[in-house]
Amino acid sequence: MKRKTNQMKRSAMKGALGASTALALSLTLAGCGGSASGEGANVDPLVKGYDGPSVDMSGVSLTLTTSEADGLNLGSFWAADKMRQWGADVNVVVLTSTSGIQTMMAGKSDVASQGADEVILGNAEGAGVVAIGSPRTKQSYVLVAKNEINSVADLKGRSIAMSGPSGFDTLLSKYALENAGLSDSDAKLVQVGGSPDRASALLSGTVDAATIFLSGWEELQAQTDKVHQLVSFGDSTDFPGSAYYAKASYLKDNPTVGLGLACANLEANDWINSDESQYLKYAQEQIEGASVDGLKQLWKDATAMDMWPTDPSQVISSDGMDGLAKAMLKSGEIKKEVSTADAVDTSFLQKAADMGCGQ
Questions:
Q1: Which secondary structure element, helix H or strand E, spans residue 278, and what is its range?
Q2: What is the pTM of this model?
């Protein structure tokens, strides 16, 4: 499955938000991968055929940014199509080298479906964004290591592959070390590259451990039995994996977008959970070079950890966002404490659930 590292985006994001005026002049969506559809456009039959509550979004127009399709963020594409079915003109832009928060602050998008850390990074620079849902509730990273390494504590003096100093995988590796009573200097953090590169380095024996995507772990297991999982960050943390977010001012002026997206979020989660075969068909449509066996195992593992909940209080939480902000502060991802009191708003999800969305 094709998935790119967020390292370049995260590095570029730091310090860039303060220059949003210049960014607005220089950033163009032509520099990103993208796809668009408008009101009345063809809706995927797999989306259209799933009946449930609806939100009248006639006359609504929005641009939503997201990352490339993979087995865990399919809900973003499904939700966009569902909102089109409800009458909205939804332009989906797939970002490959620019962050969602940069694009939003440049005035080029309305809503983002991106890593939850972007909410923290943005608000650290005064972006005033709020998360209202999540297409991927749990962290989708796992820490894997050679079989001879029995615990995280055994990584003392060992090498761990990382994308780079600012990579989110690096933050999680440091978090695991700290929880095991070690400091990040007790292990050797080796810059390797994206998740596929880190998996390859572990497979070849170049490093002793690596934090990689869950989807990459499914593929790695098919290639070797000489490595095993030490930590599933989806199980060991309550940090949100990704978030649907927008400026608070935008949501205040466009409550129909907030409600429609929340309903589509819950409906997408319910659809994914309820039918593996439909999920597999949709995934193969959306993901270039998707492995059916890999997708089957990914769906099994992700549903087991409740990756796509339909309880509004579990989709995204203030506590999880606060924990993420504290971890980012400790790792140096942000330089000052960021209040998360207003960074999560579950009222749209609750209203949607009350309407029967995803229930």
A1: helix 276-286
A2: 0.86
